[in-house]
Amino acid sequence: MMNSKKNIFLLVLFFIACLSYLAYTENKQQDYDFGKTWWAVYFLNPQQERDLSFIIENHSSENSFHWEISAEKKTLSQGDEDIPLGEKKSVSVEPSWDILKNKKIIIKISTSKNSKELYKTFK
Predict the structure, then answer these.
(1) What is the third-level CATH fold of 38-121?
(2) How far is CA 9 from CA 16, 21, 59, 86, in A?
(3) Which residues sit opposite 39 in a β-bridge?
(4) For the chain, what are the domain ranges?
(5) What's the pTM value of the predicted model, to 2 decimals?
(6) Residue 23 and residue 11: Cα distance in Å, rounded?
């Protein structure tokens, strides 16, 4: 009888230890910056037709970002942004509507290691 109580106690103790470990590792996995290296770019207001504002969200070791807005291989605007790990920055650009009309706009964001592009077509 005493041996079975001891076994149940050890089983419950082992179960609690496993749950604690799983909770700890899951909490680390939910942290965007822990052991990961990625960055994202997206439009601030994708539904607004005349808005080219975009956000760069950084979860990588890179801090320097270069962006360039072009239409039909012609550069309309460009700039550099320093964004620390875990931060995001909004970039607002307002080129002339006449320049954008009936054109495919490409926003290219690059770091020293890779680049990403956003596309928007104005009618």
Answers:
(1) Immunoglobulin-like (2.60.40)
(2) 11, 18, 43, 43
(3) 58
(4) 1-30, 38-121
(5) 0.73
(6) 18
